[in-house]
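just leaving the lab so this will be short. below you get a single protein, a line of residues and a line of whole numbers that encode the local backbone shape. id like you to explain what the token line says about the fold, in plain words if possible. thanks a lot i owe you, the record is right below:

…
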Amino acid sequence: MKWLTLVLLFIPATAFAQAQPPVDLEKEKAELLRLHRSGREAHFKTDVELLLANTPEEYVGVRAGKISRSTKAGARKMFTEYFRGAKYYEWDDLEEPIIRVSKDGSMAWMITRVRVRRVQKDKAGAEVEEKFVYAGLRTYEKQGGKWMRAANASTFEP
């Protein structure tokens, strides 16, 4: 009798799992690419809130051989200063972003390589130009139907 009960419970559970609609991976990739383009727009507008729109309250970063745990509040403070008096002339993909989404649509990653040219006023009010190439890997988790950054590994080329 226990065996029959287990089988009767297993059949509906299996049917429910199979009834889940398939994930449209191309749609998810397009949404992630939209987030990347939104990051570009945020830099040109020096809009901290737009830049942090898909940042959770806590995330992990990797840079210069170190692992850091950051908060959205800390990122807001850092980018407020980074954007203060800044103007962007370039924030352009050097290569098409590489995007992968898990089959169940719950996790994804994106690799980007971007050339940046910006100026920022120093304390004396003089504009200082900065040029670099950024290449990075960003991971995302689906939370409440929205892609949220989970971790970021950054590299810079002068």
Observations:
- The chain has one domain: 23-157.
- Residues 4-9 have pLDDT under 50 and may be disordered.
- Residues 23-157 form a domain with the Nuclear Transport Factor 2; Chain: A, fold (CATH 3.10.450.50).
- The radius of gyration is 21 Å.
